[in-house]
Amino acid sequence: MLQSQRLLPLTQVRPMTTAHLAQTMALLFLNASELDQKIESELSRNPALEVDPGKRCHICGRIYPHKGSCPFCTNPKTATSEEPIIFVSPIIYKGQQTGASSIEDYPLDEVTPEYEDLSMYVMRQIAPEIPAEDRKLAAYLLANLDEDGLLTIEPVEIARYHHVPISRVESVIRLIQHADPVGVGSPSPKDALLIQLKVLSESISIPEKAQEAIEVGMDLISRRQFSQLAKILGISHQHALEIHDFISRNLNPFPARGNWGDVRSGKVKNPSVFTSPDIVISKSSSANNDCLLVEIYSPYSGLLKVNPLFRQAIQQAPEEKTTQWKSDLEQAELLVKCLQQRTNTMVRLIGRLIKIQREFILNGDADLKPLTRAFLAKELNLHESTISRAVANKTAQLPDGKIIPLSKFFDRSLNIRTALRTIIEKETRPLSDSEIAALLKCQGFNVARRTVAKYRSMEGILPSHQR
DNA sequence: CTATGGCACGGATT
DNA sequence: AATCCGTGCCATAG
After folding, report:
1. Which residue, of A144, A268, A313, A371, has the fewest CB within 10 Å?
2. What is the pLDDT of residues A63-119, one digit of tens each?
3. Do residues A88 and A245 touch, judged by C-beta distance below 8 A?
4. Looking at per-residue confidence, does A394 or A104 come out higher?
């Protein structure tokens, strides 16, 4: 049944036909840039379609469809609640964040396809900062990251191979390490942690001796021998625990894990380009409250309409073209309606999603709540497949600038994984996988021994006899 | 001999 | 219908 009729659209949506439904689904499946392409081609083909130029906000430069003032600039000021502010942006600003317009300029020919995304992503950030003659070097370095974002080759080798002084190699590496997955391109987890710690120390306060702890006691930390660690550093056991807690909460020994780990199998739809995100989430900067601003890119939403002149002209259409024109007009009307519907669904979906995962967005991975598409579908009175399509192939940019696939918001095994992590943190004696499995069973998580092992490695925790 | 990681199969999820 | 994920079995490392 057509449950979705019940929802209240922004503007009145006329009754849905099957064609309507089918096309809405098709549109929903596309992400912002794909939709952009699709509509552009439709525009050039179909004379019945017309683009309203919209209005450009004189403050932020955004385009918005209707009269009144720019929703982006006015809403945040009036907002008081913790409700996220959601609005739709009809235009994609390509390369808006970095100003790096065309990636083709950068030599990435040696990149292995699976990791292309990560390499591109990093390259895009650092490209403006490195001199042109070092770009090849950077590309080579990025091509030799492993799936965890760590460098697999020695700087000395690179220097020799490219016939450049090692200092230049090192300065490029430094740049890479400070790019978004902070610590990416480090030769080892230890170095990655150190970099992250340093970057982090500029914004928040870090526990004393944390740096020393990583430098000298890296293996002690990973083996969870805290009393040893405390002895070496001359600090209390309690303090050692605090340091460990800080590290495991804020740092990531494998920079690329989590963000890019799930894209790694190499079957990305559009492998050549790193597409701009479909939604951008930012914190309200102007106001004193901390509500979230959510910008959804939905190309031409509200701008695309049926050309009224065409509608009139159809009366006087030449005999042989009248059927053609009629079908053009129908298609145009359908497309406009479906686009409206798509936007509407996206807004509702994202709104709900943001509310549920608010903590995750603000505080990071640790606060991700378990969620399945089926659950969300029930809440929104939509069909599961609708959610699936809406989520598929889309990405979101978080306030901290990270870009993640929207599917990351849905994870059913995450609560079990955190439970597992806390169990390992709590227990003093190294527990074997089967023992952990038993403990998890007590907490209500029915998982097999084999699964525990998998989660462990997902979290980057060493096997029990090595801790 | 026990704990772990690899491969592969079946059921759940999308 | 395609894909992902948990799980069982088996080889291997400790």
Report:
1. A313
2. 787 766 777 777 666 666 677 788 888 875 543 333 333 333 334 433 333 334 567
3. no
4. A394
- pLDDT at residue A159, rounded to an integer: 82
Q: Is A267 helix (H, G, I), strand (E, B) or coil?
A: coil
Q: Establish whether the CB of A463 is closer than 7 Å to any nucleic acid atom in strand B.
A: yes
Note the pTM of the prediction, 2 decimals: 0.62
How does residue A289 score in pLDDT terms, banded at 50, 70 and 90?
low
Nucleotide nearest to A431 (CA to C1'): B3
pLDDT digits (tens, 9 = 90+) for A189-209: 788 888 888 888 777 777 777
| CA A447 / C1′ C12 distance in Å | 24
What pLDDT is stored for residue A14 in this prediction? 52
Check whether residue A418 has its CB closer than 7 Å to nucleic acid strand B.
Answer: no
- Chain A residues 257-316 within 7 Å (CB) of strand B: none
- What does residue A454 show for φ and ψ, rounded to 5 degrees? -65, -45
Rounded, the Å distance between the CA of A195 and C1' of C12 is 37
Any idea which nucleotide's C1' is nearest the CA of A464?
B3
Say which DSSP state A404 is in.
E
C-alpha to C-alpha distances, A464 to A93, A222, A308, A421, A425, nearest whole angstrom: 49, 11, 71, 13, 12
C-alpha span between A461 and A464 (Å, rounded): 9
Q: Which residue is nearest to nucleotide C8 (CA to C1')?
A: A450
Q: What does the mean pLDDT of chain A come to?
A: 76
CB A464 within 8 A of CB A423: no
Q: What is the pLDDT of residues A157-173, one digit of tens each?
A: 788 888 888 888 888 88
Query: Which residues make Cβ contacts (< 8 Å) with residue A335, sequence separation at least 6?
Result: A23, A39, A42, A49, A304
A450 touches strand C (CB under 7 A): yes
- Considering only CA atoms, which residue is closest to the C1' of nucleotide C9? A450
